[in-house]
Amino acid sequence: MGLTTEQSLRRRIGRVLAGAGYVEVVNFPFVGEADLDALGIPATDDRRDLLRLANPLSTQEPFLTSTLLPGLLRSAARNISRGVEDLALFEVAPITRGGARVAAPILPVDQRPTDEELAALFDAVPEQPLHVEMVMAGNRDRAGWWGSGRSADWADAIESARVVAGSLGLQISPVSTERAPWHPGRCAELRVGELVVGHAGELHPGVCRAFSLPARSV
Questions:
Q1: Closest CA relative to residue 137, chosen from 117, 153, 113
Q2: How far is the C-alpha of 154 from the C-alpha of 29, rounded, in Å?
Q3: Residue 171: count of CB within 10 angstroms of its CB
Q4: What single-letter DSSP state applies at residue 47?
Q5: In 20-144, which residue ranges form alpha helices assigned H by DSSP?
Q6: What integer pLDDT is reported at residue 175 of this predicted model?
Q7: Tens digit of each residue's pLDDT (9 = 90 or more) over 98-137
Q8: Would you tell me how many other CB atoms lie within 10 Å of the CB of residue 107?
Q9: Alpha helices in 45-110 (DSSP H)
Q10: DSSP states of 161-191
Q11: Omega prior to 181 cis, within 30 of 0
Q12: What is the pLDDT of residues 192-209, one digit of tens each?
Protein backbone atom coordinates (compact mmCIF):
# COMPACT_ATOMS: atom_id res chain seq x y z
CA MET A 1 0.00 0.00 0.00
CA GLY A 2 3.05 2.29 -0.03
CA LEU A 3 4.73 4.24 2.77
CA THR A 4 2.85 5.88 5.60
CA THR A 5 3.10 9.64 6.01
CA GLU A 6 5.54 9.21 8.92
CA GLN A 7 7.73 6.83 6.90
CA SER A 8 7.81 9.24 3.95
CA LEU A 9 8.75 12.20 6.15
CA ARG A 10 11.44 10.19 7.91
CA ARG A 11 13.01 9.25 4.58
CA ARG A 12 12.81 12.86 3.46
CA ILE A 13 14.72 13.96 6.56
CA GLY A 14 17.43 11.36 5.86
CA ARG A 15 17.80 12.47 2.26
CA VAL A 16 18.00 16.17 3.05
CA LEU A 17 20.60 15.63 5.80
CA ALA A 18 22.67 13.39 3.54
CA GLY A 19 22.54 16.16 0.94
CA ALA A 20 23.78 18.59 3.61
CA GLY A 21 26.86 16.43 4.21
CA TYR A 22 25.72 14.31 7.15
CA VAL A 23 26.22 10.55 7.55
CA GLU A 24 23.55 8.50 9.32
CA VAL A 25 24.42 6.27 12.28
CA VAL A 26 22.36 3.71 14.18
CA ASN A 27 23.08 3.16 17.89
CA PHE A 28 21.69 0.95 20.63
CA PRO A 29 18.80 2.73 22.42
CA PHE A 30 20.27 2.20 25.90
CA VAL A 31 21.71 4.63 28.42
CA GLY A 32 23.10 4.75 31.96
CA GLU A 33 22.98 7.41 34.64
CA ALA A 34 26.68 8.07 33.99
CA ASP A 35 25.87 9.15 30.42
CA LEU A 36 23.39 11.75 31.66
CA ASP A 37 25.92 12.88 34.28
CA ALA A 38 28.48 13.37 31.50
CA LEU A 39 25.95 15.52 29.62
CA GLY A 40 25.47 17.65 32.74
CA ILE A 41 21.73 16.97 32.85
CA PRO A 42 20.32 18.06 36.24
CA ALA A 43 18.41 15.71 38.53
CA THR A 44 15.11 17.56 37.98
CA ASP A 45 15.27 17.36 34.16
CA ASP A 46 12.58 15.24 32.45
CA ARG A 47 15.36 13.42 30.57
CA ARG A 48 16.11 11.73 33.91
CA ASP A 49 12.67 10.08 33.81
CA LEU A 50 13.99 6.75 32.55
CA LEU A 51 12.45 3.35 31.90
CA ARG A 52 14.52 0.54 33.40
CA LEU A 53 14.90 -2.69 31.43
CA ALA A 54 14.11 -5.97 33.18
CA ASN A 55 17.01 -7.76 31.44
CA PRO A 56 19.54 -5.19 30.15
CA LEU A 57 22.43 -6.13 27.86
CA SER A 58 24.77 -4.12 30.10
CA THR A 59 24.54 -3.20 33.77
CA GLN A 60 26.15 0.14 32.84
CA GLU A 61 23.23 0.94 30.50
CA PRO A 62 20.09 -0.46 32.16
CA PHE A 63 17.62 2.12 30.80
CA LEU A 64 15.94 2.93 27.49
CA THR A 65 17.47 6.21 26.36
CA SER A 66 15.70 9.54 26.77
CA THR A 67 18.11 11.30 24.41
CA LEU A 68 20.09 10.11 21.38
CA LEU A 69 23.10 12.25 22.27
CA PRO A 70 25.20 9.75 24.31
CA GLY A 71 25.32 7.20 21.49
CA LEU A 72 25.72 9.88 18.84
CA LEU A 73 28.61 11.57 20.65
CA ARG A 74 30.34 8.23 21.23
CA SER A 75 30.00 7.45 17.51
CA ALA A 76 31.59 10.81 16.70
CA ALA A 77 34.45 10.21 19.17
CA ARG A 78 35.06 6.72 17.76
CA ASN A 79 35.42 8.10 14.22
CA ILE A 80 37.66 10.95 15.37
CA SER A 81 39.93 8.48 17.21
CA ARG A 82 40.40 6.69 13.88
CA GLY A 83 41.55 9.82 12.08
CA VAL A 84 38.29 11.31 10.79
CA GLU A 85 38.88 14.88 11.97
CA ASP A 86 35.96 16.56 10.15
CA LEU A 87 32.59 14.88 10.52
CA ALA A 88 28.86 15.43 10.58
CA LEU A 89 26.65 12.61 11.89
CA PHE A 90 22.92 12.27 12.44
CA GLU A 91 20.50 9.76 13.89
CA VAL A 92 16.72 9.45 13.57
CA ALA A 93 15.20 7.20 16.23
CA PRO A 94 12.58 7.13 18.98
CA ILE A 95 13.47 8.05 22.54
CA THR A 96 11.57 6.86 25.61
CA ARG A 97 10.08 9.16 28.23
CA GLY A 98 8.11 8.31 31.34
CA GLY A 99 9.62 5.53 33.41
CA ALA A 100 7.01 5.54 36.22
CA ARG A 101 4.05 3.88 34.52
CA VAL A 102 1.55 1.16 35.42
CA ALA A 103 2.59 -2.43 34.81
CA ALA A 104 1.40 -4.00 31.55
CA PRO A 105 -1.26 -6.68 32.02
CA ILE A 106 -0.57 -10.26 30.89
CA LEU A 107 -3.36 -10.99 28.42
CA PRO A 108 -4.66 -14.39 27.26
CA VAL A 109 -3.64 -15.56 23.78
CA ASP A 110 -6.62 -17.76 22.96
CA GLN A 111 -9.02 -14.90 22.24
CA ARG A 112 -9.03 -11.28 21.15
CA PRO A 113 -8.45 -8.83 24.02
CA THR A 114 -11.39 -6.68 24.97
CA ASP A 115 -11.29 -2.95 24.31
CA GLU A 116 -10.71 -2.38 28.04
CA GLU A 117 -7.78 -4.85 28.08
CA LEU A 118 -6.21 -3.19 25.05
CA ALA A 119 -6.61 0.24 26.64
CA ALA A 120 -4.88 -1.02 29.79
CA LEU A 121 -2.07 -2.48 27.67
CA PHE A 122 -1.47 0.76 25.78
CA ASP A 123 -1.62 2.75 29.03
CA ALA A 124 1.51 0.85 30.10
CA VAL A 125 3.43 1.82 26.94
CA PRO A 126 5.67 4.86 27.57
CA GLU A 127 5.81 7.89 25.32
CA GLN A 128 8.23 7.26 22.42
CA PRO A 129 8.55 10.38 20.24
CA LEU A 130 10.77 10.30 17.17
CA HIS A 131 13.87 12.49 17.50
CA VAL A 132 16.40 13.84 15.00
CA GLU A 133 19.79 14.59 16.53
CA MET A 134 23.00 15.78 14.84
CA VAL A 135 26.62 16.42 15.79
CA MET A 136 29.39 18.24 13.92
CA ALA A 137 33.09 18.50 14.75
CA GLY A 138 36.13 19.90 12.99
CA ASN A 139 35.78 21.83 9.75
CA ARG A 140 32.40 22.43 8.17
CA ASP A 141 34.14 23.73 5.02
CA ARG A 142 37.46 22.14 4.12
CA ALA A 143 40.47 24.11 2.95
CA GLY A 144 41.55 23.88 -0.70
CA TRP A 145 42.40 25.92 -3.77
CA TRP A 146 39.08 27.71 -3.24
CA GLY A 147 40.19 29.15 0.10
CA SER A 148 40.80 28.43 3.76
CA GLY A 149 38.60 26.05 5.72
CA ARG A 150 35.97 27.02 8.28
CA SER A 151 35.25 25.29 11.58
CA ALA A 152 31.71 24.19 12.36
CA ASP A 153 30.04 26.49 14.88
CA TRP A 154 26.73 26.99 16.68
CA ALA A 155 25.23 28.76 13.66
CA ASP A 156 25.77 25.61 11.55
CA ALA A 157 23.86 23.57 14.13
CA ILE A 158 20.91 25.96 13.96
CA GLU A 159 21.04 26.01 10.16
CA SER A 160 20.96 22.19 10.07
CA ALA A 161 17.81 22.28 12.20
CA ARG A 162 16.34 24.80 9.74
CA VAL A 163 17.13 22.39 6.88
CA VAL A 164 15.24 19.59 8.63
CA ALA A 165 12.29 21.82 9.44
CA GLY A 166 12.21 23.19 5.89
CA SER A 167 12.03 19.67 4.45
CA LEU A 168 8.84 19.20 6.48
CA GLY A 169 7.34 22.50 5.35
CA LEU A 170 7.98 24.16 8.72
CA GLN A 171 9.81 27.30 9.76
CA ILE A 172 11.69 27.46 13.06
CA SER A 173 12.60 30.49 15.13
CA PRO A 174 15.69 30.29 17.40
CA VAL A 175 15.53 31.94 20.82
CA SER A 176 18.57 32.20 23.12
CA THR A 177 18.40 29.93 26.18
CA GLU A 178 20.49 27.81 28.55
CA ARG A 179 20.14 24.03 28.66
CA ALA A 180 22.48 21.09 29.21
CA PRO A 181 24.53 19.84 27.41
CA TRP A 182 25.09 23.13 25.58
CA HIS A 183 27.48 25.98 26.32
CA PRO A 184 25.77 28.84 28.22
CA GLY A 185 25.20 31.71 25.81
CA ARG A 186 25.66 29.49 22.75
CA CYS A 187 22.42 27.53 22.88
CA ALA A 188 19.18 28.23 21.03
CA GLU A 189 15.69 27.00 21.77
CA LEU A 190 14.00 26.12 18.47
CA ARG A 191 10.32 26.97 18.10
CA VAL A 192 7.61 26.46 15.52
CA GLY A 193 5.20 29.20 16.48
CA GLU A 194 4.94 28.86 20.26
CA LEU A 195 5.82 25.14 20.29
CA VAL A 196 9.37 24.22 21.39
CA VAL A 197 10.61 21.51 19.02
CA GLY A 198 14.30 21.28 19.91
CA HIS A 199 17.61 22.87 20.86
CA ALA A 200 20.85 23.54 19.00
CA GLY A 201 24.22 25.10 19.69
CA GLU A 202 27.79 24.53 20.85
CA LEU A 203 28.44 21.73 23.33
CA HIS A 204 29.68 22.62 26.79
CA PRO A 205 33.50 22.23 27.11
CA GLY A 206 33.00 19.72 29.94
CA VAL A 207 30.78 17.59 27.71
CA CYS A 208 33.38 17.66 24.91
CA ARG A 209 36.02 16.45 27.37
CA ALA A 210 33.75 13.76 28.83
CA PHE A 211 33.05 12.29 25.38
CA SER A 212 36.58 12.88 23.96
CA LEU A 213 35.34 15.33 21.33
CA PRO A 214 37.20 18.37 19.96
CA ALA A 215 36.50 21.63 21.73
CA ARG A 216 33.59 23.65 20.31
CA SER A 217 31.84 20.66 18.74
CA VAL A 218 28.17 21.42 17.99
A1: 153
A2: 26
A3: 11
A4: G
A5: 33-38, 69-81, 115-123
A6: 96
A7: 766 778 888 989 999 999 999 988 888 888 999 999 999 9
A8: 13
A9: 69-81
A10: HHHHHHHTT---EEEEE--TTEEEEEEEEEE
A11: yes
A12: 999 999 999 999 999 999
